[in-house]
Write a structure and sequence with these properties.
By secondary structure, this protein is an alpha/beta fold. 46% of the residues lie in helices and 17% in strands.
């Protein structure tokens, strides 16, 4: 499996970066990550991850807007040019713009739908052109427990993630005959830059709903993504795997 090639959207930080590193350690000889912005430059981001890995896996970074269909096409062409193909696609790019519906703006609703849901269409369609021809592919979409249970103040985010799940199940049925699987990973509360902004009181209130009593790590998500891309998951498709410490049962 170590000769596989992966594309990971939103891969420069947080859960996305953890996924890039896990795939590079376990399954892939090369990984291309995308993001709309980088702390420095795409090239420096790629070199930093290669240095952290230290195992010879080649990392490429490409600046792309997940909401742009043309950028998705360009990303896949970059993957072909730099890596020679794409076996795995992990749709991880996402944003939040939380507010109660009565206060939510149309722009905030549209922005979340475009980044979290439209991007899935953009990149899946772009990748399938190559996967169908190769008669092989693994697509993993990062959903959320909020897409399964809803959450006050996150109607836009919940709608985008619920839509992502429905999209994934539909595409899984379309491409199964081509040896392509499509699955979702639904994280619960994970230690990221977003959750670091929560107050201690907010964190304690959230943990009351998590039987394991702690937040998850980006690596917890990355390990499940890696499993779904591996040969061990060849007979799994159209599924949603929650990684949430037991929050949704």
């Amino acid at each position: 499996m170590k000769n596989k090639k992966a594309v990971v959207t939103g891969g420069s930080r947080g859960i996305g970066k953890a996924i890039v590193k896990e795939l590079a350690l376990r399954n892939c000889s090369s990984v291309l990550l995308t993001d709309i912005s980088f702390a420095s430059t795409p090239e420096e981001c790629a070199k930093e991850i290669e240095s952290e890995l230290g195992n010879g896996t080649k990392i490429f970074a490409f600046k792309a807007d997940a909401t742009s269909f043309n950028d998705a096409q360009a990303t896949m062409q970059e993957a072909i040019d730099k890596m020679g193909g794409v076996d795995f696609l992990v749709n991880n790019a996402g944003i939040t713009k939380d507010n109660l519906l009565i206060r939510m703006t149309e722009n905030d609703f549209d922005a979340v739908i475009n980044v979290n849901l439209k991007s899935i269409f953009n990149y899946t369609k772009a990748a399938l052109k190559f996967m169908v021809s190769a008669r092989y592919g693994r697509i993993v979409n990062i959903a959320s427990v909020v897409g399964l249970m809803g959450n006050a103040g996150q109607s836009n985010y919940a709608a985008s993630k619920a839509g992502l799940i429905g999209f994934s199940k539909s595409i899984a049925r379309e491409v199964a005959s081509r040896n392509i699987t499509v699955n979702c990973v639904a994280p619960g509360f994970i230690e990221t830059d977003m959750t670091k902004k929560l107050s201690e009181i907010q964190r304690e209130a959230l943990m009351k709903n998590v039987p394991l009593g702690r937040m998850g790590s980006p690596e917890d998500i990355a390990k499940v993504v890696n499993f779904l891309c591996s040969e061990d998951a060849d007979y799994i498709t159209g599924q949603v795997i929650t990684v949430d410490g037991g929050m949704v049962m």
